[in-house]
Amino acid sequence: KNGVVIVGAGHAGVQAAASLREDGYDGPVILISDEDELPYHKPPLSKTFIKDQEAKPQPLRGEAFYTGSAIDYRPGVCIDRIDAGGRRLELSDGATLPFDRLILATGSRPRIPSLPGSDFSGVVSLRSLADARLIRELSAQSEDVVILGGGFIGLEIAATLTAAGRKVTVVEAVDRLLGRAVAPIIASHVRQRLEATGVRILSGITIARLEGGNGHVSAAITASGERLPAQMVIIGIGVVPNVELAQAAGITVANGIRVDQQMRTSVPEILAIGDAASYRHWLTGGDVRLESVQNATDQARLAARTILGHADAFTAVPWFWSDIGDIKLQMVGLISGGDSHVVLGDVNENRFSIYHYAGNRLLGIESVNRPGDHMLGRKMLGAGFSPTPQTVATGPDGLKAALA
Ligand code: FAD
Fold first, then answer.
1. What distance, in Å, lies between the first and last C-alpha atoms of the chain?
2. Does 314 sit in the ligand 1 pocket, CB within 6 Å?
3. Which atom of ligand 1 lies at the shortest distance from residue 245's CA?
4. d(C-alpha 388, C-alpha 386), whole Å
5. pLDDT for 139-177, tens place per residue?
6. Is 81 close to ligand 1, i.e. is its CB under 6 Å away?
7. Centroid of ligand 1 to alpha carbon of 10 (angstroms)
8. Strands (E), 259-398
9. From the CA of 368, how far away is ligand 1's center (Å)?
10. Mean pLDDT (whole number) for 105-110
11. Overall average pLDDT of the 51-73 stretch
12. Ligand 1 center to residue 273 CA distance, Å?
C-alpha cells in the first residue's frame, strides 16, 4: 500500500491528515511541505505576530501529534511534478514517491503586480511565517509603511502596525475598501475607525512606481505623482491559487483546481482542497474559490471521508473572521445577490450585525463585535432555517425562540 500523499501542510493539508486518522484510515499518510516549519496558524500573523518581536508562531498541532498519529511529515520538500497516470510524484530532492491517493492542498500565494521598483528590498507580501518574520524585522527599522491593497490582509496589517507605532498609508485602487467581500456599511465603518487611529487611506488611487536608494525602497509614487515615503512597502492585493502542479499534470483548472462535491479533481484518485480548489457552491449554484480557514478545514474533512469510501457532498456553511484593530468582523453565509438587509445593534457603538436577504431568504450575516449573532447565524444557516426579516428585528432572543 502506497497510501495517501498530501501536498501542502497548511490549514487544509494538516486537517486532511488528522481526519484520515480520526476516520480510521490505516495506510501510510505522508504530508509534504515546502516550508521548513512545524505547520502553523496563519491568521495571527497579520493580527498579532508582526507587532510583537517576542511573539511565537502558533502550531496547528504539537509535534507529538504527527509521530503519535503515524503521519509522516516531511518539511522542506517541494513537489515538482505529478505523474498522474503512473501515480507518482517527483520531489525537489530527486526522489520519487508513489501514491494510491493524492490530496493537493497547495494553497495560494500573493499576487505581485508588475510595478517598477518592486524588486527593491523592503518590498514584501505576507503569506508565510517567513514573510511575517521579515515584516517584523523590517518594521523595527521603518517609520513609514505603505500598504498596497485595502482588502482583509492589508487592513489587518495596517491596524496592527499602527498599534505598533508605525505611520501607515493604505493605497486602494478602487474607491471603497474590502472589495465586494462585505456590505458598503461595513466597508465605510472599517475605514472610519482605521482613520480615527491614524491610518491614512487613499482610495481610488494607484501606485505607479516605487523609489529606492542603495537597493532599498524609500517611497511609493502615486499615479498623480504624490510621493509617499516608505521604508517598507507591503503588497496585499489578493492571491493566486497554486495550480501549476495540477495544470502540468493535465488536471482541469478553472480559477483553481476544479473539484466535484467530493473534492475529486478530473483525475478521481487526485483530490484538491482549500485555497487552491474551485467548485460549484451548493448555496449559490455559482463557481467559487474560497480563501478561509473554515473552507480549508471543512473540505479537508470531506476529502478524508471521500478517500474512506463515503459519498457525502460538500454542504458546509461558509464562515470567516477578520480582526481589524478593535473591529472583530465575523461573516457567515454568502451575501452576494442580496436585495435587502436588517441591522441589529448600533454602528456608532462598534457593535452591530447586518442580516442580508434575497427576497425572504436569509443569505448571510455580517457581525461586528457581536459574536453571539454570528454563532446563532451559523446554527440557523446550518439547519437551513431562514427567519423572516420581522423575526430578525425582534433581536437575538426572538431568533433563538424561533429556531428552537
Ligand atoms: P495554505 O495554508 O497556504 O497552505 C498551503 C501550503 O502548501 C503552503 O505551506 C505552501 O508553501 C505549500 N505548497 C504549495 N505548493 C507546494 C509544493 N509544490 N510542494 C510542497 N508544498 C507546497 N482565513 C480566515 O478564515 N480568517 C482569517 O482571519 C485569516 N487570516 C489570514 C491572515 C494571513 C496573514 C493569511 C496569509 C491568511 C489568512 N486567512 C484567514 C486565510 C487562510 O489562512 C487560508 O484560507 C488558509 O491558510 C488556506 O489553507 P490551505 O491549506 O489551502 O493553504
1. 48
2. no
3. 18
4. 6
5. 999 999 999 999 999 999 999 999 999 999 999 999 999
6. no
7. 5
8. 270-272, 277-280, 287-288, 319-324, 327-333, 340-346, 351-358, 361-368
9. 24
10. 98
11. 97
12. 11
Q: Which atom of ligand 1 is nearest to the CA of 322?
A: 28
Q: Determine contact, residues 325/161, Cβ cutoff 8 Å.
A: no
Distance of CA 147 to the CA centre of its chain: 18
- Which backbone phi and psi does 284 adopt, to 5 degrees? -110, -15
Cell of 18: 488528522
**Nearest CA owner, ligand 1 atom 30:** 43
Please name the residue whose Cα sits nearest to atom 50 of ligand 1.
107
Cell reading at 161 = 502596525
66-79: average pLDDT:
97
192, 202, 134: which is closest to 168 by C-alpha?
202
> What does the alpha-carbon distance between residue 221 and residue 33 come to, in Å, rounded to a whole number?
38
Question: Pairing relation of β-strands 71-74 and 79-83?
Answer: unpaired
Per-residue pLDDT tens over the stretch 283-336: 888 999 999 999 999 999 999 999 999 999 999 999 999 999 999 999 999 988
HEC-encoded secondary structure of 230-299 = CCEEEECCCEEECCHHHHHCCCCECCCEECCCCCECCCCCEEECHHHEEEECCCCCCEECCCCHHHHHHH
Q: How many C-beta atoms surround the C-beta of residue 126 within 10 A?
A: 23
Closest CA to 350 of 326, 371, 331: 326
Q: Are 16 and 296 in contact (CB under 8 A)?
A: no
pLDDT in tens, 228-287: 999 999 999 999 999 999 999 999 999 999 999 999 999 999 999 999 999 999 888 899
Quote the percentage of the chain above a pLDDT of 70: 100
Q: What is the pTM (predicted TM-score) of this model?
A: 0.97
Question: 274 in ligand 1 pocket by Cβ < 6 Å?
Answer: yes
Q: What is the mean pLDDT of the chain?
A: 96
Q: Is 367 in the pocket of ligand 1 (CB under 6 A)?
A: no
Q: What confidence tier does 208 reach under pLDDT thresholds 50, 70, 90?
A: very high
SS3 of 153, please? helix
